[in-house]
Model the fold of this input.
Amino acid sequence: MGVLLDTTVVIDLLRGRPEAISRLRRLRRAGEVTFVCAVTVEETVRGLRAPEDVSARTLFAGLRVAPIGLDEGWRAGQWRRDFASRGVTLTQADCLIAATASSIGARLATGNPGDFPMEGVSVEYWIPGA
Done:
């Protein structure tokens, strides 16, 4: 099993937040594989300050990139449709991230657990800014 890092966690790592760094180190010492997906990369890069480019590239180079394909897109679309029928709006990005975590059997590390109410997604709360 591994852990897929959501954008909130990646940003905390890039900003040098001690708790996020400590948790990532513990995961690695335990032999857990850490992942991101293309959606997280895009969201992170979109918000980078120019001097953070090198740090972000270095961080991403040390993580595995989980693929997003037809199955993940299908699952994300189903979740959005199902939740919308109940009056709950989920974002495309969050559904794709969750579907990717589910597809690879990874826990999803995020600072926004409320954004991932999908059944079958194991969400791990990493307090943002800590």
